[in-house]
Amino acid sequence: MYDIALSVGAFVRSKTRADIAWLITSDLSIVSSNRNDAVVFTPGGGKLGSLLNGAFDGRFSEIASRKLSVGRIVECEVTPLESTLSGIAVGTHLTFAVVPADLFDPDLWGSFLEREKIALDLHVSGDEITKVESFNSASIVAADPELVEKFESQKPTTVLLENRQITIFVPLRKIAIYGDGPMPQAIAGLAEAMGWQVAMETRPDNFAGVCATLSAIDSVVVTGHEVESSSRALAYALESKAGYIGALGSQKMQENRADWLAYREITDLSRIHGPAGFPIGAAKPMEVAISVLAQALAVINGV
After folding, report:
1. Same-domain check for residues 208 and 149
2. Residue 93 sits in the same domain as residue 230
3. Do residues 216 and 245 make contact, with C-beta atoms less than 8 angstroms apart?
4. Residue 132, C-beta contacts closer than 8 angstroms, at least 6 positions apart
5. How many CB atoms lie within 10 A of CB 77?
6. 110 shares a domain with 190
7. Residues 6+ apart with CB under 8 A from 163
8. Same domain for 159 and 178?
9. Minimal CA–CA distance to 294: which of 277, 274, 275?
10. Euclidean distance between CA atoms 198 and 195, whole angstroms
11. Do 135 and 190 belong together in one domain?
């Protein structure tokens, strides 16, 4: 849900129809890593986001095409084709929600962009979702005691109450890495092992879109031997809300990037840690990854 918040917020502001689908429950823990994932459909067949490798998009888009005023609970048994696409066993029972954006509080998408913990309380009648309430860390005190207790969990989860299905979204740290090669690959691998979401990009303009989704709990690491492209990536990082920005490269490369940015009137580089990483004598890619991610954690946690 966090990854589509920027786009859905734009649709809401422009009064563009949008229908959001996400996983509510399943009888397999295999999909627990997808609990924060969601996909949004717009009229004409537009789609943003990813949910279970798109295996169930046909079901969702058919409902979205009806332009309903209420949401729908979608119960399904995984078919052979869906199993091939999603990697989930045939016959597994899954429950999804497909809800028009009009049913959500318009301010909710800003909360997702800020990477807040969010509970979506769906009021259900049969297979219809008639109302959506949302809670964050400040407003959860007004919710049901059972929901308040579940909200304290550090993992995405589902709470089932009478005529209500509640999804709790818990943000994961995200790291945006610009560049390719052994060093960024090692950083990406270690970050994934730590449970972080990883976005890697080698094109500066595409990196701008990645950076736009970052919040204070997230990190950016910029690599590359080409001054202009890596400097442009740093410029986009500085426009983001990322809590940590690291720049790999020699001291000379740091100076060249600073000159490139200064020529474009970007002179406040205080957020950039470069060369990135704690000075632990790291040389091998995995050693560099350890030093960089340790520094990122320390900066974000205010240590």
Report:
1. no
2. no
3. no
4. 71, 99, 103, 104, 105, 120, 121, 122, 123
5. 10
6. no
7. 123, 124, 125
8. no
9. 277
10. 9
11. no
| Tokens at 62, concatenated | 């058919």
And the tokens for 31? 């999909």
Number of C-beta neighbours around residue 31 at 10 A: 19
HSE on the CB side for 26, CA within 13 Å?
21
pLDDT in tens, the chain (303 residues): 988 998 999 999 999 999 999 998 765 555 555 567 899 999 888 999 999 999 999 999 999 999 999 999 999 999 999 999 988 999 999 999 999 999 999 999 999 988 899 999 999 999 999 999 999 988 998 888 878 888 887 777 887 888 888 888 988 899 999 999 999 999 999 999 998 989 999 998 899 989 988 999 999 999 988 999 999 999 999 999 999 999 999 999 999 999 999 999 999 999 999 999 999 999 899 999 999 999 999 999 998
Q: Given 115, 148, 169, which residue is the final one in a domain?
A: 169
Question: What CA–CA distance (Å, rounded) separates 222 from 202?
Answer: 10
Range of the domain at 157: 2-169
pTM of the prediction?
Answer: 0.76
